[in-house]
Amino acid sequence: MLRMVKKVKNLGENRLSADILIVGGGMAGCSLACALAGAGFAVIVLDRVDQSQQTADEFDGRASAIAEAPKKMLEQIRMWRNLGQNFAPILDIRVADGSSPLFLHYDHEDVGEDAFGYMVENRHFRQAVFARLKELNNATYLAPAELKDITYKPEGVQAELSDGRRIKAGLLVGADGRQSQIRQEAGIKLTSWSYHQTGIVLTVDHEIPHHNVAHEHFLAAGPFAILPLPGEGGQNNRSSIVWTEKDELVEDIMALPEKEFAREFNQRFGDFLGEVKFIGPRWTYPLTLQYAETSIAERMVLVGDASHGMHPIAGQGLNMGLRDVAALAEVLTDARRLGLDIGTASVLDQYEQWRRFDNTLMLAMTDGLNRLFSNDIAPLKLARDIGLAAVNKAGPLKKVFMRHAMGSTGNLPRLLKGEAL
Ligand SMILES: Cc1cc2nc3c(=O)[nH]c(=O)nc-3n(C[C@H](O)[C@H](O)[C@H](O)COP(=O)(O)OP(=O)(O)OC[C@H]3O[C@@H](n4cnc5c(N)ncnc54)[C@H](O)[C@@H]3O)c2cc1C
After folding, report:
1. Under a CB-based contact definition with an 8 Å cutoff, are residues 79 and 34 in contact?
2. Cα–Cα distance between 9 and 154 in angstroms, integer?
3. Which of 131, 180, 281, 417 could form a disulfide with 82 if both were Cys (CB 3.0 to 4.6 A apart)?
4. Model confidence over 60-69: pLDDT tens digits?
5. How far is the CA of 406 from the centre of ligand 1 (A)?
6. CB count, 10 Å around CB of 387?
7. pLDDT per residue over 398-419, tens digit each?
């Protein structure tokens, strides 16, 4: 299909003009920029953090489980190929409730050929998406760049940066994460609560290969996840750990001398992967739920964590952000094909309607799972163990859960089906 490609305009005197300005060049913001620029829009992305800092080993430490459907989109927007070998497929998921012998076992072959998802270190995701952005000559990435002021007008937005640059655009996207300045300045209400839990994130090498199995152990303080990564030299002996702990214990755990930390760790990790070696630093992430009352306002739209932040229990936060990206890119592309102004309420409303149910459902699901499993109240434990065993035996119900984990349920935008925009 012939595509009209518009370029970012330099209007002189530090003034730039684009179709779309994305504030926040994280994983969601940059994926959106690639999708939109690939569809011919002139896009500017800005981030307050420099790219080299965002891809440095010590910046993030997390790895993300990318579900099959968002992976199809990342292939379609030509970001995935830049990952090279830096991903590990998840072929099996094993869920255990503490030391209970009852567990849930998901095998990808029960629903077809595709893997459930793919583990990608966040720094590798960022490197790959930045590399794709560089290839697109109608996308401009500005960093470090700080927003000073935004003016919303019926015909467009004007942003002023603290270094004096001015940017005009037809639509502003807030992809600026949980503390979103764009959301706050638009006066959008936020519902939020703390789980009083913290995710301790680290990477380990282990003696025995993981065989691409992801493990989730539900412990009383919260889930303990062991997620397969590609090891050095293609060996399957590296895993990313998300150890959920009660807030009040985290400071002490992080301050433990190496041997004692290892003892605490091994009590939770077990010995099924043999001897373990810690790789690199450890990070902590306070766990909260938050949800913006709406993700649209005049000439403005929110995507990713700026709109919804959830518990990592099911590894779905970024996946939901990527589903936002796919839906928004489709709505905007279709509107332009019809000759509509992409920043108008009727266009943005289609995005809001499309994403609200899916995001609300996932927020409720992750919240409910965490409440159900992060305790050792005896009757609850018995009920959930019976539930896990029942789901494990009930073929059709299990398949529904599996397809959900792969992100292939619901009214999917074209990009999530691996189709062009
Ligand atoms: C422990 C843990 C494990 C997780 N595991 C998974 C998983 O396995 N799978 C999954 O799908 N999700 C997972 N998540 C969730 C996932 O990490 C987030 O949903 C995702 O990082 C959000 O991406 P984002 O681009 O929306 O926001 P962010 O990553 O927060 O990016 C926002 C960007 O905006 C920039 N910014 C902020 N404010 C401004 C400003 N005013 N001006 C300019 N720039 C600004 C920031 O510098 C940043 O680059 C996990 C989360 C945690 C805590």
Report:
1. yes
2. 21
3. 131
4. 889 999 999 9
5. 20
6. 14
7. 565 566 666 667 789 999 999 9
Could you read off the pLDDT of 231-275 as tens digits, one per residue?
887 789 999 999 999 999 999 999 999 999 999 999 999 999 999
Query: Pocket of ligand 1, candidates 49, 215, 305, 328: which has the most ligand atoms within 8 Å of its Cβ, to mutate?
Result: 305
Q: What confidence score (pLDDT) does residue 17 get?
A: 95
Residue 174 CA to residue 387 CA, distance in Å, equals 40
pLDDT band at 389 (very low <50, low <70, confident <90, very high): low
**Residue pair 225/62 in contact by the 8 Å Cβ criterion:** no
Average pLDDT for 43-54 = 94
Residues within 6 Å of ligand 1 by CB: 23-29, 46-49, 62, 64-65, 147, 175-177, 181, 199, 201, 242, 285, 304-305, 312, 315-319, 321
C-beta separation of 405 from 124 below 8 A: no
User: Which regions of 181-275 does DSSP assign to beta strands (E)?
Assistant: 190-206, 213-219, 222-229, 238-246
Give the number of the atom of ligand 1 that is nearest the alpha carbon of residue 29.
Answer: 25
Pick from 99, 319, 120: nearest CA to 219:
99
Query: Bigger pLDDT: 375 or 242?
Result: 242
Of 92, 291, 267, 268, which Cα lies nearest the Cα of 191?
Answer: 291
Identify the CATH number of the domain defined by range 9-192+289-417. Answer: 3.50.50.60
CA dist list (Å): 180 to 186, 246, 301: 10, 26, 12
Question: How far is residue 244's CA from residue 227's CA, in Å, rounded to a whole number?
Answer: 14
